[in-house]
Amino acid sequence: MAYYKINGGRPLEGQVTISGAKNAALAIIPAAILAGQPCVIENLPIIEDVHVLTEILRLMGAEVELYENGCMRIDPTKIDNYEVTFEMVSKLRASYYLLGAMLGRYGHAALALPGGCSIGNRPIDFHIKGMRALGAEVEIRNGIVYAYADELRGAEIYLDMASVGATINIMLAACRAEGQTVITNAAKEPHVVDVANFLNMMGASIKGAGTDVIRIKGRKELHGTSYAIIPDQIEAGTFMIAAVATKGNVVLNNIIPTHLEAISAKLMECGAHIAEGDDGTEFFLQVQGGDRLRAVNIKTLPYPGFPTDLQQPMMALLTMSKGNSYIVENIFEDRFNHVPELIRMGASINVNGRTATIEGVEKLYGANVRATDLRAGAALIVAALAAEGTTIVRNIHFIDRGYERFEQKLRALGADIERIEED
Ligand code: EPZ
Q: Which end of the chain has fewer CB atoms surrounding its CB within 10 Å, N or C?
């Protein structure tokens, strides 16, 4: 197992280029199954989750070439295995998108239930409700979801919660259904729009992505295409928070400022300085940390609200602000597992249900900590970069899942971070 050794207290300075969005990649790669021809996807982040999804698709029979430059060529026409086993799903929760893609393309699918993780139960009942609304027979037996449809027919589907996964999965299945599907109370995250754009490039007819109501007119066939995915708003937000936490001065390239409105607003409320610019071809953001920051309150909400995936790194920053901050985690029921680790570094945090009260302290101190999930790992890295002394962060395989070349990018910004492979 590998771990990070970080000597904190050094301001991050310089430029960083943000990679493609993990959560767009994990949906767009399975979406390629719907095409009757090969697809080329560009700007993919070379992260563990993309490698795992590539392996799963190869196990299903697809021909997949993934190149170091983030370009993938996928030929789904060779797929001949329609079962996504527990072993596959346990490596990648987001393999649930294969359910909608296979149902939409072949009319049948078998997917091991993804189960919970360290941030909550993570059920997929909204996904199943959507497939049934489209006319699929869906049965759960021995932990496997079996879905079958002679013919999928468009339907009106209301989502009880603006679920990102359910919105995308229903879109995938509805693309080739007979007639029109309307998804109401749809998720509006940037990667929902990215998936819709990719599908439309394949010849689908999807309107309204990015709003509460998405309309999909089914098409008999979808063709291959090439497509570059959007930059990762959560990776960008993580670097913005790290820049402020270390009182640094960082320019982020390859970003889409509108995707970062919530995090920019909150960091400026804390007292950080953020300037947006463009060099004629692409946008950049300059983020500067000030002196001791002001406490702020955070409520995680579906997009365009404050993203739950940045709640954990933001908490690391707020442990060092002046005064009390309050964080309410409205999306996942168990997303505070990073708190005991931050307390080990000197933070003062009290959790009561979905609310964390953070009493700001002057500084954090290096300690031995362990990541419990992807974004908890990001939070501990932010804390370690700002802390006085040396921090050891274990379980960094969680971080490898979602951040491309994380230590290289941080080192290029002046961080003293070393990855050590343990026997
Ligand atoms: C996606 O998860 C992301 N993962 C998560 O990012 C992200 O935190 C989340 O959206 C919210 O933005 C991927 O895109 C691969 P949801 P997803 O369906 O689709 C409940 C990261 O760190 N719910 O919007 O699973 C659910 O339990 C990861 O990159 C049901 O009850 O999120 C949660 O409380 C973590 N039934 C809420 O809805 C369902 O059928 C929102 O979940 C589906 C969801």
A: C
